[in-house]
Specification:
Layout (H helix, E strand, L loop, with lengths): L1 H25 L4 H22 L4
Amino acid sequence: MKQEKEEKGLISVLITMKLINKARLFNKRNDTLDGMATTHLTVILTHIPQMFMFTN
């Protein structure tokens, strides 16, 4: 179960990173979108440890 949660978290991060890269490719001149995508990734990475914490 813990491994499943970890895999889902990692998949979520990879998908988000891929979306950020696509946004950068298509919006090189749009700093606002790039900033929003980077902020989104930071929020996800900050909360991943909390996703894996659970009590028995």
